[in-house]
């Protein structure tokens, strides 16, 4: 019997912002995400392919490094017609496919006609938006018509994209709307194998937009929503609250906790629906963050260095959980490095489908069943983001990171170091916070990793975007 596949992606969640982890921040409580971890496998060293959302999502959805077609390694990775997505693998195998939430590949926003639109790369159903961010509340045609700039690349509002049309909401909150739609999808398709990708935009800005009961719980004031009748652009409103001033650092953390608490409650509703419908046992759930916690929202990445936008660990290592009760054990902490590239090969093996040789990831199921761990301990993982790069093999990581600090980096939550912008070598087993640059002590290791990276980088940009 083929398993159902449920992939949950959170947005900008910090590495310490999951209370199931031993390293969790002291102020974090995520009981429903913890419930998922307790009934499945929690990964300590899980990586995405980029420290920002668009390229990271291209990588995990294809099982291939997005640099294979985006040699410049920027925001606009897109999806080539020549590379299959998870949905395009599963749909021909009899799966009904649905996607909800954020669908951001860095290109062709707000259009139904592009390759990146979910119905054009394997999905039967879609409700969501195609941009970096979307207002949590302002979802109506009325507010869209009154706003001078409703469709910015990072600051969008108005109706959601829905299959071949759009859907307007006079009221409602986006996290709850997506959970309601997920419940509806599960109820309608409970009798057939399904792939559901649920990509929440929580906990991305605008982080202060949370139902009042959550704001009250964490002691932060309600901020008036954007009102086009007051004059001014939505982008100006967005940028105002995407910074420290006028929100204090303390309050920003409070808004983050409120937003995350709402997200956690909604994931609990989703798990309850699976239980109620009798689907939990044979549903493979993969849940992870799209990149490291953002320096703009009050996220906590401790004990790691860096944040979203960095190729330090804090930008690349994310909360990651997997559950499949019918096959895998529970309450297991998996310590070997894994990658979001492994999601597609894992799903293909679970669905008893052949793994294409060109995929860059590998199935995690053999290791999780205790059959083998290779190649997980010894394989090299690579990152290229704008002018930064990194390569990890075993405990060793060679990298050159940003020279400029994030535009908002509370030192209480984002560790810094003396070697920004310099070629650095770290032993992550001994120094996960990347504080001790060992390149002078281990030049041979650095040279070997540099050669690995250079060989990988030389292959990038070769895949065409169209056939």
Low-confidence stretches: none
Largest sheet geometry: 10 strands, mixed
Text of the CATH class of the largest domain: Alpha Beta
As for the number of domains, it is 2
Q: Label the structural class.
A: alpha/beta
Q: Overall pLDDT, averaged?
A: 94
Rounded to the nearest angstrom, the radius of gyration is: 21 Å
Query: What's the number of extended β-strand segments?
Result: 16
* CATH topology type of the largest domain: Alkaline Phosphatase, subunit A
**Share in helix:** 25-40%
**Distance from first to last alpha carbon:** 35 Å
Number of helices: 12
Strand line-up in the sheet with most strands: 7-6-5-4-8-1-9-10-2-11
Percent in strands: 15-25%
CATH architecture grouping of the largest domain: 3-Layer(aba) Sandwich
Classify the oligomer. single chain
Shape: globular
CATH superfamily of the largest domain: Alkaline Phosphatase, subunit A
Encode the helix/strand succession as letters.
EHEEHHEEHEEHEHHHEHEEEHHEEEEH
Question: What does this protein look like?
Answer:
There is one protein chain. This protein has 467 residues and is an alpha/beta fold. It folds into 2 domains: 4-368, Alkaline Phosphatase, subunit A (3-Layer(aba) Sandwich); 380-458, Arylsulfatase, C-terminal domain (2-Layer Sandwich), CATH 3.30.1120.10. The protein contains 12 helices and 16 strands. The chain has a 10-stranded mixed β-sheet, sandwiched between helices. Helix 1 (31-38) packs across helix 8 and helix 5 (174-188) runs parallel beside helix 8 (249-276). The radius of gyration is 21 Å and the shape is globular.
């Amino acid at each position: 019997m083929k398993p159902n596949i449920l992939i949950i992606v959170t947005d900008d969640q910090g590495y310490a912002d999951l209370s199931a982890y031993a390293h969790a921040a002291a102020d974090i409580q995520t009981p429903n995400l913890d419930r998922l971890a307790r009934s499945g496998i929690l990964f300590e060293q899980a990586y995405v392919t980029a420290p920002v959302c668009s390229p990271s999502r291209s990588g995990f959805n294809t099982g291939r490094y997005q640099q294979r077609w985006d040699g410049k390694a920027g925001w606009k990775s897109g999806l080539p017609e020549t590379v299959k997505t998870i949905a395009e693998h599963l749909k021909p195998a009899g799966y009904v496919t649905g996607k909800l939430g954020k669908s951001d590949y860095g290109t062709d926003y707000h259009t139904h006609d592009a390759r990146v639109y979910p119905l054009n790369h394997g999905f039967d159903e879609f409700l969501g938006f195609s941009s970096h961010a979307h207002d949590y509340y302002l979802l109506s045609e009325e507010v869209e018509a009154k706003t001078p700039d409703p469709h910015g690349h990072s600051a969008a509002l108005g109706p959601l994209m829905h299959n071949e049309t759009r859907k307007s909401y006079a009221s409602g909150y986006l996290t709850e709307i997506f959970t309601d739609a997920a419940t509806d999808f599960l109820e309608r398709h409970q009798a057939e194998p399904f792939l559901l990708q649920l990509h929440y935009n929580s906990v991305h800005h605008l982080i202060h937009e949370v139902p009042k009961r959550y704001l009250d719980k964490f002691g932060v004031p309600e901020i008036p929503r954007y009102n086009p009748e007051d004059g001014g652009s939505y982008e100006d409103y967005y940028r105002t609250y995407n910074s420290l001033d006028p929100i204090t650092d303390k309050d920003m953390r409070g808004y983050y906790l409120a937003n995350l608490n709402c997200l956690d409650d909604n994931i609990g509703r989703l798990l309850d629906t699976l239980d109620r419908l009798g689907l939990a046992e044979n549903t493979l759930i993969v849940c992870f963050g799209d990149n490291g916690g953002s320096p703009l929202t009050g996220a906590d990445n401790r004990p790691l260095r860096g944040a979203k936008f960095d190729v330090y660990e804090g930008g690349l290592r994310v909360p990651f959980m997997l559950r499949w009760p019918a096959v895998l054990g529970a309450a297991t902490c998996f310590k070997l490095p894994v990658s979001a590239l492994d999601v597609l090969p894992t799903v293909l093996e679970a669905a008893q489908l052949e793994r294409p040789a060109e995929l860059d990831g590998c199935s995690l199921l053999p290791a999780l069943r205790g059959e083998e761990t290779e190649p997980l301990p010894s394989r090299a993982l690579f990152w290229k983001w704008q002018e930064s790069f990194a390569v990890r093999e075993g405990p060793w990581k060679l990298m050159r990171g940003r020279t400029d600090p994030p535009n908002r980096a509370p030192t209480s939550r984002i560790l810094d170091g003396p070697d920004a912008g310099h070629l650095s070598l770290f032993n992550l087993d001994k120094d996960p916070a990347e504080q001790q640059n060992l390149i002078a002590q281990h030049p041979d290791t650095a040279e070997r990793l540099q050669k690995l990276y250079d060989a990988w980088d030389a292959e990038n940009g070769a895949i065409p975007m169209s056939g």
